[in-house]
Design goal:
Blueprint (H helix, E strand, L loop, with lengths): L8 H5 L12 H10 L3 E3 L2 H5 L5 E4 L5 E2 L1 E3 L1 H4 L3 H17 L7 E4 L5 H11 L2 E2 L1 E5 L2 E5 L7 E9 L3 H13 L4 E11 L5 E7 L4 E12 L4 E2 L8 H4 L3 E3 L5 H9 L5
Parallel strand pairs: 2-14, 5-6, 5-9, 9-10, 10-12
Antiparallel strand pairs: 1-4, 2-3, 3-13, 7-8, 11-12
Helix pairs in contact: 5-6
């Protein structure tokens, strides 16, 4: 088993996924993400020195001092396979029945779902983002079970939308009451999805994560507002464009 902490970028990218024979620790996952340029966190020391820079707008609309860019991390084939095999280990640990269908919530977890399907032999359900909505492409038989995987979870906004859309198309699909994620950054242990199906019922989904890394978030529309906006820091959506990711990760660097 390679010693991940302290590895260089080149060493991380040379790891063979099959050499990792245990569940990774949170600090190892975060270290890999930071080293590969996939995890950004606000530099408060730089802000105190006058470099207030930028901070992140999350999908929920909240503002945050940290952001995980899955498309950077999972863009490396060996890292994609490592994370997929970590999720499969979690599945085995929980002694879940043999997976029937699996899907990665787009865009961040699409390839992750494909890789888990390849490793486990489960059928791949395809989800696509169309006009801001996540759509199930193709058909899944009634009473078939479906596991949804995601790159990260803060408030579960995208996961809730996905569950509602799938059930709206076919209420006979059994979505396993679990959400598998690489990083749980919101501190939640479960997600409650309400307004599901024709009877508007609710269901609890337990969050199963490879790593947990709490980030701070603020509601900019609340009475307290956003602490970073108050510092003069600009809020942007890191995932919107590659340029936005470059801007937020370099906004506090000394020129």
């Amino acid at each position: 088993m390679p010693k991940i902490l302290g590895m260089t970028r080149e060493q991380i990218l040379a790891i063979n996924s099959k050499d990792i024979r245990r569940l990774l620790m949170t600090d190892e996952v975060v270290y890999m993400a930071e080293t590969l340029g996939a995890f950004w966190k606000y530099d408060y020391a730089a802000a105190d020195a006058g470099k207030v820079g930028m901070h992140a707008i999350l999908k929920s609309g909240l503002h945050s001092d940290g952001f995980f860019m899955s498309r950077v991390l999972l863009g490396y084939e060996n890292i994609l396979e490592i994370m997929a095999r970590q999720m499969v280990r979690k599945i085995e640990y929980l002694q879940l029945p043999k997976l029937e269908w699996v899907a990665g919530i787009p865009d961040g977890a699409t390839k992750l779902g494909e890789k888990i399907s390849e490793i486990t032999g489960a059928k791949l359900a395809k989800l696509e983002k169309v006009d801001g909505r996540i759509i199930l492409i193709g058909e899944i038989p009634d009473e078939a079970s479906l596991l949804l995987v995601e790159d990260f979870c803060t408030k579960g906004t995208g996961f809730k939308e996905t569950v509602r859309e799938i059930i709206a198309k076919n209420s006979g699909i059994f979505i396993l009451p679990l959400e598998f994620v690489i990083l749980n950054r919101g501190g939640l242990s479960e997600i409650i999805v309400d307004r599901i199906g024709p009877h508007n019922w609710a269901q609890s989904f337990r969050i199963i994560s490879i790593a947990e890394k709490r980030i701070t978030e603020w509601d900019p529309d609340s009475i307290e507002g956003c602490a970073l906006c108050k510092k003069g820091s600009e809020a942007i959506k890191p995932k919107a464009t590659d340029e936005n990711w470059r801007l937020i990760t370099t906004s506090q660097l000394q020129s």
